[in-house]
Amino acid sequence: MPLNSQQKKTVLASFLGWTLDAFDFFLLTFLLTDIATEFHADVPAVSKALFLTLATRFIGAFFFGMLADKYGRKPILMLNIVSYSVIGALAAFSPNLGIFLALRALFGIAMGGEWGLGSSLAMESIPPSARGMVSGILQCGYPAGYLLAAVVYGLLYQQTIAGYTIGWRAMFLLSFVPALIVLFIRSHVPESPAFVEAQKAARPGMLETLQKHWGVALYAVVLMMFFNFFSHGTQDLYPTFLKKQHGFDPHTVSWITIVANIGAIVGGLAFGVLSEKIGRVNAITLACLIALPSIPLWAYSTTPFMLAIGAFIMQVAVQGAWGVIPVHLNELSPGAVRATLPGFIYQAGNLAASYGGPYQAGVAESAGGSYGYALALFAGVVAVCIIVVIRFSPERRGQVMTCSVERFGR
Question: Whole-model pTM?
């Protein structure tokens, strides 16, 4: 069933919000070594910024989600986007590593709210037959943001414009750009029809819902922990791997990362659509199976061309699995807490996986600087774990979405 004009604008706004959120997050992954140099620290110390951003996202998911379940998806999404734009840009003015880490922790809170708000607004506004496709589109916002960060890094970083050399601080000032989306949302995006309808009746709160369905909620958090290990474990330190272990220049790092994220977009779209035919669980399983044979090419190749091929295949698999997650979590969640619960589960899984970046960096350094070994170890173990855990997931493809009381995961 095709989307009408308003539905398309809603999907576009949700996609752009997540894209530019991810853009800001992944800018940091390209700049770790440069920030470490300026603050006289090592890469594992600076990579704690990744940990803090991931660890605090569940706070934002809960806070902004609760507001959205009470006041509406649209206004709180606007507030959330402005918040992460301003906080992200403030990192450019950090006088030392401590302040920088604190600002990235605050950014994590703001970043944590966007996914749940955007996905619930979109999923509640479209017909059930379009959910798989839209799920893939929404989740592709993440690799699209990574791709955008790679392009900007390759084109602008260390370039001289009007006598000024663009360093890492100027890159973070680009975080102001997402705030422009708010103007589009205010003018063109309607409130979720399900939320508007729900205002006519009383709804249960999140704590009450969790008490009734704590088993499935806990299972979903464990699943999302492995999913976040899967994405961040294959993405966050990959630019560092290319720079430190292979000695590639910024241009080469940029185009390899661009190729990887083209693969991520292809995977997210393809498996999102495929999940409408073979089911959410089967689509995720297939994507993870594809990741395993790509590991040697992705982590142990020696030439930029072969590494790019490996990165393309790996991200087809990783983001292919992720492309199913927006619709899967929204279909599992009761409508009364849909702005809060999927995002909270997602970000609680992020919290559980948040120390993956520093731990990975530590494994690499203890192995003589072999970031390839650390990447391969994480990718292989986590792919197998997801395959095992996802087979226990409920399947609720095509579930009717309202904001009234619904079953959860049954």
Answer: 0.75
Please list the residues that pair with 160 across neighbouring strands: 165
**Per-residue pLDDT tens for 125-176?**
888 888 888 888 888 888 888 888 888 888 888 888 877 888 899 999 988 8
Give dist(CA 241, CA 371) in Å, integer. Answer: 5
Nearest-angstrom CA–CA distance, 118 and 109: 15
User: Can you read off the two tokens belonging to residue 314?
Assistant: 């790996």
Question: What's the chain look like in SS3?
Answer: CCCCHHHHHHHHHHHHHHHHHHHHHHHHHHHHHHHHHHCCCCHHHHCHHHHHHHHCHHHHHHHHHHHHHHHCHHHHHHHHHHHHHHHHHHHHHCCCHHHHHHHHHHHHHHHHHHHHHHHHHHHCCCCHHHHHHHHHHHHCHHHHHHHHHHHHHHHHCCCEECCEECCHHHHHHHHHHHHHHHHHHHHHCCCCHHHHHHCCCCCCCHHHHHHHCHHHHHHHHHHHHHHHHHHHHHHCCHHHHHHHHCCCCHHHHHHHHHHHHHHHHHHHHHHHHHHHHHCHHHHHHHHHHHHHHHHHHHHHCCCHHHHHHHHHHHHHHHHHHHCCHHHHHHHHCCHHHCCCHHHHHHHHHHHHCCCHHHHHHHHHHHCCCCHHHHHHHHHHHHHHHHHHHHCCCCCCCCCCCCCCCCCCCC
Tens of pLDDT, residue by residue over 7-48, are: 899 988 889 888 888 888 888 888 988 999 999 998 888 988
